[in-house]
Design brief:
This is RNA polymerase sigma-70 factor. InterPro entries: RNA_pol_sigma-70-like, RNA_pol_sigma-70_dom, RNA_pol_sigma70_bacteroid, RNA_pol_sigma70_r2, RNA_pol_sigma70_r4_t2, RNA_pol_sigma_r2, RNA_pol_sigma_r3/r4-like, Tscrpt_reg_LuxR_C. It is a single chain. The chain folds into 2 domains: 90 residues, RNA polymerase sigma factor, region 2, helix turn helix motif (Rna Polymerase Sigma Factor, Chain: A), CATH 1.10.1740; 93 residues, Arc Repressor Mutant, subunit A, CATH 1.10.10.10. It contains 9 helices and no strands. Helix 2 runs antiparallel to helix 3, helix 3 packs across helix 4 and helix 8 crosses helix 9. The mean pLDDT is 81.
Length: 190
């Protein structure tokens, strides 16, 4: 779909106002483009919560970088930003092996009795690792991965921004990832 010259001029004016910190300009751009950004993220992920998070991140970055970013074609910029955020999210997911999947691998590699003993030891060790996180990281991690709440639900319950939730989750997962994988390997080798 091609934009009219009027649309391009309107976008340029809104972007100029955005650079000056005009929140009305930001709101106008958000209203105009959020559906397209969300649709692009959802098309690749098929996950409405993650598509919402990515949409939020794209527009947050637009706001945060408003003074330093020169944008000639806003739809192309937003599409590229969305695509990059989706790819980054997919890359993180590939590196992350959920605990239930690790436990399933554990069960298939051992007989049932040994697997149950190892599962209990693994869960106890996982809990100990989770307890090494800061109090806020523990709370957010448990809400996300034990209560299966979305980042927006957690943000609403804790009265904090979704970006704060995402940052805390990222730090917690990064801290736990290496330790948990090492723990799983040790348990599988024993």
């Amino acid at each position: 779909m091609f934009k009219s010259d009027e649309d391009k001029i309107q976008d340029k004016l809104l972007l100029l106002k955005l650079k000056e910190g005009n929140t009305d300009a930001f709101d106008a751009l958000y209203e105009k483009y959020w559906k397209g950004v969300y649709a692009a993220a959802f098309k690749r992920l098929q996950n409405p919560d993650q598509a919402k998070d990515i949409t939020q991140d794209v527009f947050l970055q637009l706001w945060l970088k408003r003074e330093s970013t020169n944008i000639d074609n806003l739809p192309a910029y937003l599409f590229t930003a969305t695509r990059n955020k989706v790819f980054n999210w997919m890359e993180k997911e590939r590196r992350y092996t959920p605990v239930p999947e690790l436990l399933l691998q554990l069960k298939t590699s051992c007989d049932q009795t040994d697997a149950e003993v190892l599962r209990k030891e693994f869960m106890k060790a996982c809990e100990a690792l989770i307890n090494t996180l800061t109090e806020s990281q523990q709370r957010i991690f448990r809400m996300r991965y034990q209560q299966d709440l979305s980042t927006s639900e957690i943000a609403d319950l804790l009265s904090i921004s979704r970006k704060t939730v995402q940052n805390q989750l990222g730090k917690a997962v990064a801290q736990l990832r290496a330790s948990m994988l090492l723990l799983a390997l040790i348990m599988l080798l024993n």
